[in-house]
Amino acid sequence: MIEIKNVSKRYKKLQALDDISFTIEEGKISCILGVNGVGKSTILKAIAGLIKIDSGEILIDGQKINHKIYNKVSFVPDVDNHFSHFTIKESFEFMKEFYKNWSDEKAYEMLEMFNLKDNLHISTLSKGNIARVKIVIGFAQNAKYTLLDEPFSGIDIFKREEFIGIMTKYLNEDQSIIITTHEISEIEMLVDDVVIIDNGKVIFKFNAEKTREVEGKSIVDKMREVYRGE
Q: Where is the ABC transporter domain (predicted)?
């Protein structure tokens, strides 16, 4: 379980996170939603230990973030974070040195799914293919918690469907995915829990399946209801 407890983060005049609290359960796909600039990416970066929060605490399986728990968390950002002079294979070898749970089998199966060869230099790839490589690297780390920040950016709709299929294929019962995305319809039937944030605050939390069954509403329907105050 990931516990976000009363976390705040300010960037100069911008209050990115404002006393925010929620939990991420094991074995579930959780989605953090909201309009642009409300703090979604900041939350993921804080969980990954990439930024220092101003107050509150984040616990991963009961432990504060430290170097000992980094193998539990994989972060796929929405910006390029690769070594452009590396080939894909060299990137895999580099990651293998640092992540003890790295799976070559998973990496190469996903690479084949995306029709990519490991001898390609990352600097020569299109934006969409770079996005694919980032996703492969993120999942091949075999982390307990995989954080995906706008993972569908640059990926066409057909490959999105394949990626969604492989997401569920490789998700073990004790693994979790935390995702931010504007492509809500793509993940509608996969998501378990939804957290809606606005201006750095949690404004609503709900279970997507229960909302569909009990209220007959999709995630988008519920978002409209929450933002309109209905």
A: 2-224
User: Can you give the CATH number for the domain in which 195 is found?
Assistant: 3.40.50.300
DSSP string, 93-139: HHHHHH-TT--HHHHHHHHHHTT--TTSBGGGS-HHHHHHHHHHHHH
Domain carrying residue 50: 2-228
pTM above 0.85, yes or no: yes
- What is d(CA 176, CA 2) in angstroms, rounded to the nearest whole number? 10
Q: What is the pLDDT of residue 182?
A: 79
Per-residue pLDDT band at 92 (split at 50, 70, 90): very high
Instruction: Tell me the C-alpha distance between 106 and 118, whole Å.
Output: 13
Q: How many domains does the chain have?
A: 1
Confidence of residue 81 (pLDDT cuts 50, 70, 90): low
Q: Which residue has the tokens 């990496």?
A: 107
